[in-house]
Design goal:
By secondary structure, this protein is of the alpha/beta class. The protein is 29% helix and 22% strand. The strands form 2 sheets. A 9-stranded mixed sheet has the order 6-7-8-3-9-10-12-11-13, sandwiched between helices. A 4-stranded antiparallel sheet has the order 2-1-4-5, with helices on one face. Strand 1 (5-16) and strand 2 form a beta hairpin. The protein is globular. Bound molecules: iron/sulfur cluster (SF4) and magnesium ion (MG). Iron/sulfur cluster binds at residues 245, 282, 284-285, 288, 290-292, 295, 300, 312-314. One of its GO terms (cellular component) is plasma membrane.
């Protein structure tokens, strides 16, 4: 079957200049990423902040254009699709519902905005749709006249989910949808997302820096490091026996909580690298506890495994085949 969402060799390169007279440098935010998501599946995309996850989300939402490669929905290249049609099929749920909800608008206005932008229905049917979707996400109809500041973090995230779902999308891009929430509220929102997926047959790309968060929701997991997918596997496969040393480190939570601080990891020995000057060979080699002599000079190639794909020299000797896009 054709995957509902597919990325083929997608790269995104930014040219940046740090200071007025500095020379231009290129930053490869996404580096040759190929991924497929089956209809009704949940692909967890995991990696530290700055690895390219959010850039990938923006590409899928049409907010950024890939430098090379293509995005396909139901086998059709997205570039060829009308932007308005695309918005009806893919909707985002972002990390911080507070900054993504207009504080001056009522909840009813916020949730119905996509319908008004796309000219779907009249005022009465939009009002009815808002009431229905509030009920679906577990909010009482009376919040229609409330403002975001009057709601809790969990309620605001329910509003953001309602706004995404009112367009009846097929694919929802969830970018750290629970990381701004208290732990107890996080699980309620994750449960809600799981129920909505089953009820409406939704397909999710679920982006998180936290592997544990994706465990209960995802069907497959892709692990990203400096713009590359270093391992992709089923959830069971990855959580039972992560094979890539970086996936193992993420699972053991030995990484610094905020790599932007540039603090070396106590167990990995080095901080997250600067994406403008990625390490030679395998980008992970300065932090890898299992690095081989060739790792600092030769980049590993993606290999197909029984359960997905991996790129790491530890597996070069296995009967793994070079991965095709
Ligand atoms: Fe570690 Fe080498 Fe594998 Fe990179 S290729 S993850 S440095 S063992
Ligand atoms: Mg991000």
């Amino acid at each position: 079957t054709t995957p509902v969402l597919e990325l083929r060799n997608v790269s995104k390169v930014y040219t940046i200049r740090q200071g007025l007279f500095a020379e231009r440098k290129s930053l490869r935010a996404i580096d040759d990423v190929s991924l497929k998501v089956e209809r009704g599946g949940v692909l967890g995309l995991v990696g530290e902040s700055g690895c390219g996850k959010s850039t990938l989300a923006k590409i899928l939402l049409g907010l950024e254009t890939p430098t090379t490669g293509e995005v396909l929905i139901d086998g059709e290249p997205v570039g060829a699709q009308d932007r308005r049609k695309l918005a009806r099929r893919i909707q985002p749920i972002f990390q911080d519902p507070y900054s993504s909800l207009n504080p001056r608008k009522s909840i009813a206005d916020i949730i119905s905005l996509p319908l008004r932008v796309h000219g779907i229905g009249d005022a009465a049917s939009q009002d009815k749709a808002v009431r229905e979707i509030l009920d679906i996400v577990g909010l009482p109809a009376r919040v229609m006249n409330s403002y975001p500041s009057q709601m809790s973090g969990g309620q605001r995230q329910r509003v953001a989910i309602a706004r995404a779902l009112i367009m009846k999308p097929e694919i929802v891009i969830c970018d750290e949808p629970t990381s701004a929430l208290d732990v107890s509220v996080q699980s309620q929102i994750l449960n809600l997302l799981g129920e909505l997926r089953r009820e409406f047959g939704l397909t999710y790309l679920f982006i998180s820096h936290n592997l544990a968060v994706v465990e209960h929701l995802a069907t497959r997991v892709a692990v990203m490091y400096l713009g590359r997918i270093v391992e992709e596997a089923s959830v069971a496969g990855l959580f039972d026996h992560a094979r890539h040393p970086y996936s193992q480190a993420l699972l053991e939570s030995v990484l610094t909580p905020d790599p932007a601080l540039g603090v070396p990891d106590t167990q990995l020995g080095a901080a997250y690298p600067n994406p403008i000057a990625p390490p030679s060979g395998c980008h992970f080699h300065p932090r890898c506890p299992k690095a081989l002599p060739q790792c600092s000079s030769v980049a590993p190639r993606p290999l197909t495994t029984a359960d997905g794909r991996i790129e790491c020299h530890l597996f070069d000797e296995e009967k793994a085949e070079p991965a095709t896009a």
